[in-house]
C-alpha cells in the first residue's frame, strides 16, 4: 500500500515579520483556513500507515513461519544423513549376513531391525535389500534377503535406510503390477 503524501499548503504565503499588519493577518487567516484540508490529509496518511503496519506484521509472521519450515527441513536433512553411509567393505552379490564397515556416528539402531538398501556407487542398478541385525563400533550387519544384479566382489557401497531411498526398480515393478491389474 502506498502512503499518500501530504501536500504542502499550496498558494499560501508564510507570514513574515516584515509584512504589514493587514497582509500578515490575511496570510495567517489563509494558513488557518487550510488546516481542515491538512487534517484530512494527515488522517488519510495515518490510515495508510496503519494498513501498512498490518501488512508488515503479516509479512513478518509469514517470514517467521517460513523460517520454522526451513529449520525443520534442515534438521530433517541433517537427521537423514545419519541414516546414509558409505562402505569400502569387499562383497560379492548374494544373500545372507554381511557386515559393512560404515564408521561410527550413524543413527542405525544397535539392535537392528531397520530395513535398508545397499547399492553400488559405480552401478546403481546393483542392489542388496535386507534388514539390519546390529550396528556396533562402526560395523553395520545386514541380513540380505534380496539382491538385484550379480558379480563382485565390489567395494563401492552406499547404505541407505530404506525410508530415505527412492527405489525406481520397486516403483517400476509396482507400475507394471498396477497396469496389469487394469
Based on secondary structure, the structural category is alpha+beta
C-alpha Rg, in Å? 37 Å
Q: What is the percent of helical residues?
A: 40-55%
Oligomeric assembly: single chain
CATH architecture of the largest domain: Beta Barrel
Write structural notes for this entry:
- The protein has about 180 residues and is of the alpha+beta class.
- The protein folds into 2 domains: about 1-80; about 85-180, Beta Barrel (Elongation Factor Tu (Ef-tu), domain 3).
- The chain has helices at about 20-80, 170-180, and strands at about 85, 95-100, 115-120, 125-135, 140-150, 155-160.
- A 6-stranded antiparallel beta sheet has the order 1-6-3-4-5-2, with no helix packed on it.
- β4 and β5 (about 140-150) form a beta hairpin.
- The longest helix is centred in the N-terminal third of the chain and has 61 residues, at about 20-80.
- It is rod-shaped.
- The two termini are about 55 Å apart.
Amino acid at each position: 500500500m502506498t502512503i499518500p503524501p501530504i501536500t504542502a499548503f499550496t498558494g499560501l504565503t508564510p507570514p513574515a515579520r516584515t509584512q504589514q499588519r493587514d497582509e500578515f493577518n490575511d496570510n495567517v487567516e489563509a494558513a488557518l483556513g487550510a488546516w481542515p484540508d491538512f487534517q484530512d490529509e494527515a488522517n488519510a496518511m495515518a490510515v495508510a500507515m496503519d494498513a501498512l503496519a498490518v501488512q508488515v506484521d503479516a509479512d513478518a509472521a509469514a517470514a517467521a513461519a517460513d523460517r520454522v519450515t526451513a529449520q525443520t527441513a534442515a534438521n530433517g536433512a541433517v537427521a537423514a544423513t545419519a541414516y546414509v553411509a558409505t562402505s569400502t567393505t569387499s562383497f560379492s552379490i548374494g544373500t545372507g549376513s554381511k557386515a559393512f564397515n560404515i564408521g561410527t556416528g550413524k543413527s542405525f539402531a544397535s539392535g537392528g531391525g531397520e530395513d535398508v538398501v545397499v547399492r553400488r556407487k559405480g552401478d546403481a542398478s546393483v542392489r542388496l535389500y535386507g534388514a539390519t541385525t546390529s550396528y556396533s563400533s562402526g560395523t553395520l550387519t545386514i541380513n540380505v534377503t534380496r539382491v538385484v544384479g550379480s558379480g563382485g566382489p565390489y567395494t563401492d557401497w552406499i547404505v541407505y535406510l530404506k525410508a530415505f531411498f527412492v527405489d525406481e526398480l520397486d516403483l517400476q515393478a509396482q507400475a507394471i503390477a498396477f497396469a496389469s491389474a487394469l
